[in-house]
Amino acid sequence: MKTIAALVLALASVGAQADVVITNTFNGTGIQPLGEPDTTTYGEVFTTPDAINTVLDSFSLILQSLNASTSQLYAGVATWVNGGAGTSLFTSSVFSGNFTDWTEVVIGTGGLSLTPGQQYVAFFSASGLFDGSNALVQVGLSDDANTLGMSWDNANGGSPLHPNWNGCQACSYQLAGTMEFSNPGNQVPEPGSMALLGLGLLGAAAARRHSPAKARVPEQV
Question: Keywords in UniProt for this one (predicted)?
């Protein structure tokens, strides 16, 4: 398995110490494609781990580019109802990069309060970002079953926020990545700092280190 670099998008103005970390371990394989001109969105369906740790602080997926083009993507969390995304709860800023090695892209949500027992989907999407240049990535898979399963939306540029995704409705396949949850009582305000700056890949050297590198880019609050 290739060493995984980590690109951490600090899109949060609130931080917390994770109390529960759910991990779907990367198995070295991926599903494709994500991006222009084909499948618009891939997501993992989940619920909160328990009735106490109901704040989703961050989530990640693992990406690798399929061609030399720079991909543009964003992340989101929405309710999951009858095989499709419902109400949008969180949308990240757009990030871009050419992921020459498998790269774990970590998204901070700012502390997203969720309802125990409700199903949600955490996704990466290229919806609305098609520009006429094909830019495709594959998304890492896992053999674990710690979340409810993978789904995808092949709307080819359309919004992921509609009631019926057309692929693998929370099926037994799992997307590799992590989800960090905390108790609402553990939320700790963080001071504002620099504006969110250019988001892209970590350097190739960092990607080859034995220990995954992490880079945090603070966001203006």
Answer: Signal
